[in-house]
Amino acid sequence: MADTTIYSFAIAIEAIGHNRLRSLLTSLGIIFGVASVIAMLAVGEGARQEIISQMKLLGANNVIVRPIVEQEEGQVESTSDTREERRPFSTGLTLMDAESIKETIPGVLAVSPEIVAETQAVRSGFRRSSKLVGVTNDYLLNGDFELLEGAYFTDEQLASAAPVAVIGYDVQTRFFTSEPAIGSRIKCGNLWLTVVGVLRQRAISESSMDALGIRNYNNDIYTPLSTMRLRYENRTQLTVADVQGAQGGDDEDAPAAAGPMQHELDQLVVRVSGSEMVAPVADIVNRMLERRHSGVVDYEVIIPEQLLEQERRAQAIFNAVLAAIASISLVVGGIGIMNIMLASIMERIREIGVRRAVGATRKDIILQFLIEAVMVSFIGGIVGVILGFALSLGIERMAGIETVVSPMSIALAFLVSVSVGLIFGLLPAKRAAEHDPVVALRHE
Questions:
Q1: pLDDT tens digits along 18-39
Q2: Using N-to-C axis directions, what is the helix angle for 95-104 and 278-292, rounded to 10°?
Q3: In angstroms, rounded to a whole number, what is the distance separating the alpha carbons of residues 177 and 185?
Q4: In this structure, are residues 433 and 366 in contact, taking their beta carbons and an 8 Å threshold?
């Protein structure tokens, strides 16, 4: 049996070698089909890894609360002397909101408040615009940040509003190229901060920053929340004009206020115990803040998992369309193999008769032509994989979509190409074996 199989392989290779151009044209459908499969899987894998990286950036078990401009609705009055209805007063998103969420809602592991301010970082004659972010250690620990060197803030530094900082990777490469960053000082605004830690670089694509509305964390400078509130800007200090402006005002002759109340915090990240708790906790947070803010809608509650699930669904639809296109190409390629094999059998009827006359069985004839069909599709699969690599690189460079060609996709492409050869080569092989040896020998 082994000798027969080896001999059938030799005959198949010889037949393909004698008809190189026809074999190449026959395998074109397989080539484009396999290339489409490789490109489809590369785009899908790239999208999957992008979603995973986005999930790590936002946190799968997080609920994010961000301040927004108060939403107003109603009808415009036609009379000019109609006085504006008194609006309820809200202090905006505050640290008290964060403490209330952490102490009241079950399933909440940590609440990470955040205050962000634009600043100019200065050191050794170099200056760079950056963001100074007031945080607690919970923000750094729960945000998937990793230390490259140094340490996070100590309890004493957090309590005493110490002038210290943990800097992003790009800040270190900009200001500390010739000396260690730990223990050195960097000026942010009017205050010098001592560097106590450096964060490891985080890979953040432009698409992730645009889609998720996040910053480039590598450029940030982090300082204790207490330091930000006491040494930089204390947003809890209110004036009479602020309160009157937020309420709508009682005195028509009073000067116009600056606008809506300024939020003390720029973001709250609520980390829950499990993914099944995300939606219930988000609902409770929304109701709690509605009561605490007197019904004023000056915040939004974001569930990252739901945002990324929508993106995952859109990507699944895109992959399904690509899979349909690839399947059509493979079916067309398989039909091409079947047609060419049937035509080849008509040309080689006398060869079939000679083989049968010298002792070949029907199974040997079937094996010969089946191997030939598989060889054609296999060669098409090899060329298709190479073309798929090139197509994936072209998509990544021209469309800006991340693509990842995995060994699993290559194995799947080869499996599909061989399967197409087997399926569409079976009928021609059976037709070849059904020829009567005597009639085949007399065929001209």
A1: 677 777 777 777 888 888 888 8
A2: 130
A3: 14
A4: yes
Q: What is the mean pLDDT of residues 303-322?
A: 69
Beta strands 191-199 and 164-167, pairing class: parallel
Q: What is the pLDDT of residues 329-339, one digit of tens each?
A: 778 778 877 88
Residues 6+ apart with CB under 8 A from 183: 194, 195
Q: Tell how far CA 28 is from the center of its chain.
A: 33
CA angle 176, 182, 187 (to 5 degrees): 60
**pLDDT tens digits for 217-271?**
888 999 999 999 888 877 766 555 555 555 555 444 433 333 445 688 888 888 8
Question: What does the radius of gyration of the chain's CA atoms come to, in whole angstroms?
Answer: 35
**The two structure tokens encoding residue 362:** 């029907």
Task: List CB contacts of 111: < 8 A, sequence separation 6 or more.
Answer: 98, 99, 101, 102, 138, 268, 269, 270, 271
Nearest to 87 by CA among 248, 260, 290: 248
- Nearest in space to 57 (alpha carbons), one of 235, 237, 215, 263: 215
Residues in a beta bridge with 63: 270
Mean pLDDT check: name the lowest of 24-33, 131-140, 383-392.
24-33
Identify the pLDDT of residue 132. 92
The number of helix segments (H) and strand segments (E) in the chain equals: 16, 10
Are the beta carbons of 405 and 55 closer than 8 angstroms? Answer: no
* Confidence at residue 253, expressed as pLDDT on a 0 to 100 scale: 44
Contact between residue 428 and residue 334 where contact means Cβ atoms under 8 Å apart:
no
Structure tokens at 227: 């330091």
Residue (of 234, 212, 101, 91) closest to 161 by Cα position: 234
Q: Are 409 and 59 in contact (CB under 8 A)?
A: no
pLDDT confidence tier of residue 185, bands split at 50, 70 and 90:
very high
Give the residue-averaged pLDDT of 273-286: 84
C-alpha distances out from residue 433 to 73, 335, 348, Å: 81, 20, 12
Pairing of strands 126-135, 108-123: antiparallel
Please tell me the predicted confidence (pLDDT) of residue 196. 94
Domain boundary assignment for the chain: 1-59+352-393+402-444, 62-72+86-248+256-303
Number of other CB atoms surrounding residue 257 within 10 Å: 18
Q: Token pair for residue 100?
A: 């209330």
> What is the rounded CA–CA span in Å between residue 310 and residue 263?
30
Amino acid at 156: E
